[in-house]
Structure formats: C-alpha cells, structure tokens
Amino acid sequence: MSAVPDTLAVNAEPAPEPEIRLVVGLDELAEAARVLREAGARFITMHLAGRPVRSLMAAFALRGRLVALRAPLNGEPAVYPSLGAWWPAARWPEQELAERHGLVALGREHTRSLTRPDADVVEHVVRGPDVFAIPYGPVRSGVFEAIQFLIETGGEDVPRLHTRAYFKHRGMERRSVGMSVDQGSYVAERVAGIASVAYAIAYAQAVERALGAEPPPRAQRWRAVYAELERIANHVDVIAKEAETAALFVGQARFQIHKENILRLQAAFTGSRFARGAVVPGGVRADGRVDLDELLRVLDAFEKDLRRDRRLFVRTASMTDRLVGSGRLERATLDEYAAVGPLARGSGLGVDCRHERPYGSYRHLGPEVVTEEAGDAMARVDVRFGEIGESIRILRQAIDQLRRRDGRLRCDVPAASGAAYGWAEAPQGELLVWVEVQDGRVANVHIASPSLRNWALFDLAFPSDVLTDFAFVEHSFGLTPAGSDR
Amino acid sequence: MLEWVMRGLRRGRVTTGYPHADEEPFWGFRGHVDVLDATGAEPALERVCPTGAIAVGGDHRLRLDRGRCILCGACVEAAPRRFGFHPTYETAARRRGALVVGAIDGEDPAPVRDTLAQRVRALRRSVHVRHVDAGSDGSEEWEIQALWNPHYDAQRLGVFLTAAPRHADVLLVTGGVTEPMRGPLERTWEVMPEPKALVAVGTDACSGGLAAATGAVAGGVDRVLAVDVYVPGSPPGPIAILHGVLLAVGVLEREAVP
Questions:
Q1: Is A54 on the interface with B (CB under 8 A)?
Q2: What are the beta bridge partners of residue B250?
Q3: Taking burial as the number of CB atoms within 10 A of a residue's CB, which of A18, A118, A168, B42 is the most buried?
Q4: CB-CB contact of A204 with A279 (8 Å)
Q5: What does the longest C-alpha to C-alpha distance in chain A come to?
C-alpha cells in the first residue's frame, strides 16, 4: 500500500493486485487526484461504475500500480470539482461524462460538444486576411475511417486544428450489458477491429480479475503471440501509409506485402485475419494451427527483409524529409495530456503497460520499452520499427515455450459477481477496460481507448508544419476512430 | 530510388490470379457458416447467436442469416453437428434474401440481376471506387485498402480508387450507419453520377451486426440507401470484397453458394 500517499491509503477497499481502489467523497475527488499527480501518477480515465453503488471512478497509473478513486454518488446532484481545469488529460473524459451522463464538473471552461459531432458546422476562431476553414472529413479522401478535422489556415500554415471524433459511436460499451462474459468478448474485439486481440485481452483480463480466474500459462503465451503479430501488422501498416503519402511506391508495396503476410499468418493460426474469436475469458479457444517451425522460418525471413527495408527507408531523403521535424510534440505536453503508445514513446516517455504493469506472459518475456527523443513523426516511425524487432524477439521466446504442449488452454471462469480493470498494450497504446459482472453476466463496461486519449494531442501537433504535412503527421499517430468513438 | 526498384523486381510476382484463377482459402479459414443439418432443431439454439442470425421455425427447421453472422463461431462450438465454417472467399450476393440459408427463397433472382446488369453495362471495363465509413470497426477499411496492395492489385482488373464522389461509379459502404454519418453518406451517394452501384461491405453494413441492438446505428446500409451487393463477413477478406465489386459491375455472375 506504500505506493500511494498515506493520506489516501486509509480509505482503501479490496481490489485484485496490482490495483489499488480508494474510496473518496465526490467533493474530495479532485483533491485526491492532485495528490496522486504530485506523487507522479498518470491520468488514464474517468467513468461511471454501478457497483457496489453508483460511483464516479477515476483511474491512474502510479509506479507499477493502477490506482482507482471511487466516489459514490449518493443520489446527490451529480456535481464535482473539475480535474480537467488543471489537468488537460481529464478534459475529454469530463466532457464525455457531462454529455452522456449529465455529470457536471465545476470550474472548467466550456468546450465544444464532443459526443454530438455535426459534419456541417464550420467554426472560425482564427481571424486574419485570407484565413479560411476546411472541414476535412468525415468522408475522407481515400479509404479511411470517419473522423473530421476542422483546419483553419491562411493557405500554408495551420494556426488551428480541431479534431471532431464520435461520428462512429456505436454504443459498444452498453452492447455487452446482459451478455454472458464469453459473448462479451465478441463485442470487445469489434470495438476497434484493427486491435481486436488487444481489446479481447484487456476485456478477458478484466473479467478474470473480477472473478478471480487465472488463465493457464499456455493460453497466456498464445495471447502474446496473437498480440505481437497484431502489433507488427499495425506498425507495418503505419509505415506503408507514410511511404504511400510520400509517393514512395516500391517502399509502400514492400511494407504492404509484409503486412499482408502477417495477416495471413494470423488467419492460418486462428481462421481470422484479425485473430477474432481466439481469446476468451479464461484463456484461448484452441492451439494455433500453424506448425511452430514454419512460424519461425516466416519470422526469420520477415526480420531479414524488414531490416533491409528499414535501412533503405531511412536513407531515402524524399521519405525522411517529410518526417523529420514534422508534427513535433514536446515531452511536457504529452505528459500533461497523459499520452500513450508510440506517440508518447517517440517523445521519450517510456509508457508501456506491458512493462509498467506486466500481465500474462509479459511477466516472463521481459518486453523492452523502445523510446526516441525527437518527438516528431520520424521518431514515431523509428519507435515502430524498433518495436517490430522487439515483437519478433518476444514471439521467438513465446514460441520456444509453446513447444512443450503442456497444460490447459482454458480455465473455468466462475459465474460469480465482481468488478475490475483489465489492460493491454494495444498497438495504439495502453488500453484500459473496466468490467462489472453480475452472476456471470456483464453488467457494465467502460473502455478507455488509447485513440481517444491521443486524438486530443493531434490538435497541438502542428506548431510549425504546413498543410501538406498533415497526412504524414496523422499516419504517424496511427490511431483508430473506431476505438475512440466506441 | 534505383535500389527500391531493384528490390521490388527481385521480390517477383505475388499477385493473385483471382478471378481468372481460383484462389483457394486454406483449411480452417472462416469464410462463412454452413448449415449442415437444418432439421429437428431446438428453439434454444437461437440464443447461442449474439446477433440473432439463427432462427428456428415452428417446424423445427433452422434458418441462418449470413447477413447478420459475425463469424464468431459460437454456433459451431455449441452445435458442431449442425453448423460448420466453410472456407470460401466468395460470400457476396445481390439480394439480401439470398444471404439467408435454409429459408425458402420465394423471390425470383432474375429481375434484380437483370436490372443491375442493365444499369451497370457501361461500367464493365473500368470502374472508379469510392468508400464511405458509416460506422465500421476499422477492420473493413484495412481489407478494402488491401485491394490495391501487391497481393490483390485490383487495378489489373480496371478497379481504381478515387477520392472524388463525382468521379466514382461504385460506392463501398462500411458500418451500420450511425446517426452523424447518415447525412454525409446520403450526400456522397447523391452526387455520384449515373450509372452507379452500391456495395455494403461487412456484416455491420449488411445488418448493423452487433451494434444493431444498441440503437446507435440504423441497422444496415439498406435502411438508408438501396444496396446492390451485400458482402457479409466480420470483416470480409479482400477477395470477398473484390467478388462483391465484380458482382456489382457485372464482371462476375456467380454468387455465394447457399
């Protein structure tokens, strides 16, 4: 309990390790958060919980622990002192709570609507000669997910950018309510389809932690295999898109071939190119169907190919010229907004929950955190290249352990009740899922997606860039609106 | 730059021969679900499916709506004697009714087929495709993007991607149509010149999929616009999408096997 300051520790209630759950009054929530921030905590999310009583919860990462503040809402008018007023990371969660649940944070500035986007509203904030506003999206040029960027520009520079998310809100959190915990995983893996495995793992771990189940090691290893393959596919996808934007066509084709091969490998393992249905609460459905030696051969060839392609990529001036210095974000800004994933790691913030709060096989596989210091699009691409190498290393280890076909693939998950957080490092960054279970049925779900947290920073990523850098910076973020909008 | 070119040449050809040559899915690929035995089913089987794709009639006959199926495999796990994954890539159909397996399909497929063929006659040799995301989970976008990667290379078939709806002949729509996307989707379709065809890509676009029950989506593209080809799948693979596009413009005639 020494992880949290003593003043807070007195009100602890039981929670599965390494979570610390503290009960505070609604009016003390902001003060408690301030104490945590001073102790070095990183903000993750705020949401409503239904058990044991209706509460407002705020989650933080602090020195290898997950600290949750729970403030019961005793039927009182739901107002609380704002965190977002002094902690930018909390702004969007507070806005979401206000719009979706009528929970009002006192003392924060009024901001635009977050959850009700309107494609036709064009705002003007910047004044000056020749300044105009471009609403880019939600129907994008090319095959991209729906999101809108309101860009105000005088022609070249981008004095203001405003990201409008939520065009794709499908109500996936409330969808799983009432489902069995097994069925809930079908919903989880369809929240952000390109990170199906990470969402399924985070959800499954929340259920397992809530009900006190521990999946067998063999299942944990398979989860790591699917998760790392998914990470590789996502990172390669970002690099291919950067090459496409720079009209580096052979480079684009090369990375697209790599990505397709990884998706096919995933499909050969699980029957699905996105490994859907592979991860379930309690473990995994089946052993992967690929011969492990075959997988090793594919990995060896891929690593060799990728090493060469990377070397060429960083030597191609028409490519790197567009990335170096583009979309630069200072470490302090990322820290304030509690950025996660390759975005944070590209500015030297070593945020990676596989390392911070190791789960499953990562407790033994020892993932290294890859960071770069420059904070620009190039640094984010470098982080991705580095992480692919790290993923291959983890895969080799996991494969080695999987050769001994020992132990079970799935443990029993009791049809009991409970509530807990689960997490996974998605390719986009740290993903946190809160699940409440009542007699084996899902009662409440909250998803804190890395994409929602990182989009907030996109508005700040154009201090010295021009309009033609836009696509490079967007791809370097590598986010998915499906995840942020849920 | 020369080095990139050399590297590309050294790699050789990876492109599929589809549709001129068959592309065989490997064993275990989840193309779509087949009903192996439709008779004597218990009504309780309906509850196995999270999207309500399974219906058991009064005569205890099973019906499976592939337009709602998200390929989760819950039914295959619960009743392996009745359901099985069929490894196929060609899953698209021109009528929504054709996606329902086990139902007596009273509709004559000829009028729909002939009207579409009449309409798109001019598109057969070369089409420009535009995409709108109306609330997908993001994976359908990956699979559509893959159509222009070296493995599938849709350009060899005269299928090109365009950003301008005014240049587009075929509209690919993903997702079950969320409220904020309804207007942009309708306007995109409106400004496309005739002749044009609309392809619903993915189970979400066919029926709303899992999200249909939340009320946040319209429950399929055909609630908003008339759909010419349905490509079920969660997500459908690149060849399934290509099958749908070629079906829409009349290059291919064969639909999903019931």
A1: no
A2: none
A3: A168
A4: yes
A5: 71
Asked if residue B158 lies in contact with residue B127, where contact means CB atoms within 8 angstroms, the answer is: yes
A441 forms beta bridges with A180, A438
Give dist(CA A164, CA A149) in Å, integer.
6
What's the CA gap between B82 and B256, in Å, rounded?
19
Residue with tokens 């052979």: A250
Per-position DSSP letters for A305-327, written without gaps between them? HHHHHHHHHHH-HHHHHHHTTTT
Tokens read off for B231: 């490509």
- Tokens 């580095």 sit on residue: A386
pTM: 0.92
* Residue A187 DSSP SS3: helix
pLDDT in tens, A195-253: 999 999 999 999 999 998 999 999 999 999 999 999 999 999 999 999 998 888 888 88
The answer to whether the CB atoms of A483 and B138 lie below 8 A apart is yes
Non-local (6+) Cβ contacts of B25 within 8 A are B31, B87, B88, B89
Tell me the CA distances in angstroms from B46 to A250, B30, B49, B225, one per residue in order: 50, 20, 6, 29
* Selection from A344, A337, A430, A459 nearest residue A90 by Cα: A337
Work out the minimum CA distance from A150 to partner chain B, whole angstroms.
16
CB contact under 8 A, A166 and B70: no
The answer to ipTM > 0.85 is yes
Q: Which residue of B1, B30, B131 is in closest CB contact with A143?
A: B131
